[in-house]
Design a protein that fits this description.
Strand order of the largest sheet: 5-6-4-7-9-8
Number of helices: 10
Largest sheet: 6 strands, antiparallel
Strand content: 5-15%
Distance between the termini: 47 Å
Helix content: 25-40%
Number of domains: 4
Number of strands: 9
Length: 255
């Protein structure tokens, strides 16, 4: 049976009445209650399956059958389902190792003219062969290997030149720095401007309510390392008055 047929059959069973069970000899009340609980669990699972987002929905790229092997003059008489699954996995690995991302980008951009979002190039080498690497939870360039986190910010201050960010209204001002031009900018914008990774102590995260609450209750010494959003109108509009800039090193020590 196809997966859709299996799901439909399970759904029909879960939605069907089972009131008759307690009225039939050999099916006591407890049995019916057990079936009722099982159906609640099944329906909850099916509900979650049906709410898969459009971004997460899978569309098969390629399938393999024994007939394809036979068409290419291979003897499949001794191949079982496990062998076919192994072959499918090896084909997938070969695609990933030999330009799958290149093929995806070419088809999407050049063949189907699908527009790209902003910052869809590598900030280091400016190559467009980039994507999101779920294993490291970062964007990654498949040409030079540079990776960056879209949720991380970098505090830029003297002796680094902040004029580019000020002149182009990039990022958010920092009011706790001795440098009047200091700004919090995304890791992408930092690498794009300076062509290097920031120092570890420069990394900050913007923590919003309610996750920000514990950072307002830190010891005075640790609170000095953070900066509540108080004065910048854009930051207040984007993140809310209960947000706070927190050094990544402090977040790691608190976790």
């Amino acid at each position: 049976m196809a997966p859709e047929e299996i799901i439909n059959e399970i759904s029909e069973w879960a939605n069907a009445s089972h009131a008759y069970l307690s009225n039939r000899e050999g099916y006591p009340q407890g049995y019916r209650n057990g079936i009722s609980q099982a159906k609640v669990i099944i329906l909850d699972i099916l509900s979650k399956a049906h709410h898969t987002s459009e971004e997460e929905k899978l569309f098969p790229i390629i399938g393999i059958t024994k007939q394809e092997l036979e068409d290419n003059r291979f003897d499949t008489s001794n191949l079982d389902e496990s062998d076919m699954l192994t072959m499918a996995d090896k084909i997938k690995d070969a695609l990933n190792d030999n330009g799958y991302q290149d093929i995806l980008n070419i088809v999407a951009e050049e063949c189907m003219d699908i527009p790209r979002k902003i910052n869809t190039y590598c900030p280091m080498c400016r190559n467009k062969n980039v994507g999101y690497n779920h294993s490291i939870h970062k964007h990654e360039c498949y040409s030079c290997g540079q990776a960056w986190d879209s949720d991380l910010y970098v505090l830029v201050e003297y002796p680094e030149d902040t004029l580019h960010f000020e002149d182009n209204a990039i990022g958010y001002p920092c009011f706790t720095s001795e440098d009047n031009g200091a700004r919090y900018v995304t890791e992408f914008d930092y690498i794009n401007q300076f062509k290097r990774k920031p120092e570890p102590e420069q990394y900050f995260s913007l923590i919003q309510w309610p996750n920000s609450q514990p950072y307002f209750e830190l010891s005075p010494e640790k609170q000095k390392q953070c900066e509540p959003i108080l004065y910048d109108e854009k930051a207040l509009s984007d993140f809310g008055s209960s947000a706070i800039w927190v050094p990544s090193s402090l977040i790691e020590s608190q976790s």
